[in-house]
Amino acid sequence: MASSEAAASAMEIEKAAASAPAAVLRPQFEALKPHDMSDGKVQFRKVGVPTHRYAPLKRCWMEIYTPIYEQMKIDIRMNLKARKVELKTRADTPDVSNLQKCADFVHAFMLGFDVADALALLRLDDLYVDSFEIKDVKTLRGEHLSRAIGRLSGKGGKTKFAIENSTRTRIVIADTKIHILGSFLNIKVARDSLCSLILGSPAGKVYSKLRAVTARLAEKY
Amino acid sequence: MAATPVTTAAPTQEEAARQGEEALERLRSTDAPLYLSPSPELAKDARTASRYLFSSLVPFCSKPPLDSLLADDGFDVEQIWCQIDLLSRPLLSVLRRELNRLERDPPARVPGSALDVGVAGEAAEAEKERAMEDGEGDEEDGDESEGDEEEEEDEEEAEEDEDEGDEEEKEDEEGEAKGNPIEDKFLKIDEFEEFLTKEEEEYGLLERKWNKHKQKVSDKEDEDDDEEEDADDDEEEDDLHLGDFDGDGDEETGIAENARYEDFFGGIKKKGLNKNGIVGKRKRSSNAIDFVDGLESTDMDIEENDDKGQKILSTHEKELKKLHSKIEQMEKANLEPKSWTMQGEVTAAKRPKNSALEVDLDFEHNVRPAPVITEEVTASLEDIIRKRIIEGHFDDVQRAPTLPSKAPKERKELDENKSKKSLAEIYEEEYAQKSGLAPALLTVSDTLKNEASLLFKKLCSKLDALSHFHFAPKPVIEDMSIQVNVPALAMEEIAPVAVSDAAMLAPEEIFQGKGDIKEEAELTKAERKRRRANKKRKFKAEMAKRTPKKAGQNVTPGSTIEKPPGS
Hints:
The longest helix of chain A is centred in the last third of the chain and has 18 residues, at 203-220. A 3-stranded antiparallel sheet of chain A has the order 1-3-2. Chain A has helices at residues 2-18, 34-37, 54-59, 61-72, 97-111, 115-123, 134-137, 143-153, 158-167, 184-199, 203-220; strands spanning 44-48, 74-79, 84-89, 127-133, 170-174, 177-183. In chain A, helix 5 packs antiparallel against helix 6 (115-123), helix 8 (143-153) crosses helix 10 and helix 10 runs antiparallel to helix 11 (203-220). By secondary structure, chain A is of the alpha+beta class. Chain B has 22 helices and no strands. Chain B has a domain at 14-102. The A-B interface holds A 114, 116-117, 119-120, 123-124, 127, 154, 157-159, 161-162, 164-166, 168-170, 181-182, 207, 210-211, 214-215, 218 and B 411-412, 414-419, 422-428.
């Protein structure tokens, strides 16, 4: 196809060159579809499903399926035997990055985020998911670890919510793993707060710092 | 008493004598206590008696100053006594001479005959004086009359002593010459009586006189002891009559302390006088005599001891000894280490245990003593409290109100609850606001502002109603006006209420200059050079401008004196 096209274009150029005195007409091409770009091949993504997210997946399947299939124009199916969610591009997928976005969206859900929160990933392309472990920050064992996790969450999760609300991020604390969803700067602020909490600073101190930072951030916008 | 001088002068001598004797008798017969209270009769009698005695003594005087004693009412004690003294002094010397003569060659005669040989008047006087002695004992100070009596009695005593001295001497001599014990005793008894009465006055004098008479006694040691003693007695007594009657206590006590057994009960020498059986008075007389002898012997002992100089010391020496011992004591104390109370800083280790408790320490208390809480104190405090509560006047500390310098900062409260909106919704809303699809949400400050503006509008409408809506707001004309740097208050009011130095122009408007002003001290070298260069340039430019003007304009004809050529 390319060669023929090239030949055609060459011919056209020649034609143009031949008919030099005639007006030069620029060729009008339509944008290439991702399907075309990949030479008609279909691209796949496969997202593994952890056991603890299996039941929630089943519950929220339609909420996941609808935006992916309808708006992103990506095929999605659940491979029960392999326990994976499979995504496939269609012929009329508008954008190349849709597939990746959907994969990230499903992956975010698998990490533990809510569907509504993960949906922001589909809508905005500058949102990321950052994951780190407690042991990355500080080696804690036994009681200390448990206390650190407790410090991160706060009483009834209030510290976590405070960070989420002030930095416009979503945080998932899965035992020793921490996942943060949000824009790059917000992730940074949230991560700093969480790290300080892990390292042992009290919640009040973290709050005051958060306030200062978020005020500064809000002023920017 | 005015009548008496007339009566005494006019009648004869016998009459006067009789009256005088009667007066004496009366004086003698009155009881002793009656002398204590003033009585004019006694005074009158005393005057009469003294006048009589005086006149009876006058014949014996070679050159009497007065014929009779002037003892009227007008004359006081001193005057009467002076008269008596004037008369008696030469008489005394005469008597003394007589006595010495008698001593030298004692006439061996009976006392009565001796008296007869002696002066007739003296005998009468002596009798009367002896009779008077009974009343002497209770003499006391007080009245004029009594004073008179004293003088009179002193005079009498003096005379009596002289008589007694004569008598004693004669009696002793006679007794010894005869060797008659009875005679001696008899005489001694009389002597004893007189001696006892005189003892109070003379006792003190004895001691004093003994030191004077040491020499005399030592001279007479070789002679008979009795004679010596008696003679000493006589002499002492004689001298005592003549001298004062003041006693010397120290000598008395000294002698009393040093009296010994031998002095009282006699050694071998004195036993001769005391051998006869003596009863009552005689014993006493012997004791008295012994005492007298004892005193004499102590005197002798004193003399003997003084020669040795060991046992008995005189008072002065005793004082000196005491003083020396005191001095020694003090010196010893000074050499020893001082007691801990006298030392400077003393720690507990340096002083004996619990010694600070015994000593009364005095130190300053720098702490105010704790107030004693009494009923009244508590009652007063409670009254104050009650009053304060009723008034509601508590001394609460009130925070000073901070002036709102700027608008309160908008603080975003951290929401600690799970956000109702999901992240997607949040971004959706944000996008909608940005793109303008959705209206902007009102923040807290916006709501406050809205509320404030609403309130102000209401207020303004009310105020406008006050002025019947006839307000005409001034049109805002933006024009340029020159702001003068005048204090703001001057612009506003004619009469300034308070002085204000607030100027119309701001400091930066007043400031005429460029950029950062630096002081001379702050400049760097380069900057200094630059300044100087600028200054020079300016100056040069000015000079250049000025000089052509000067050259052209300022020259007037005749102003410059030109030198004439060729000179």
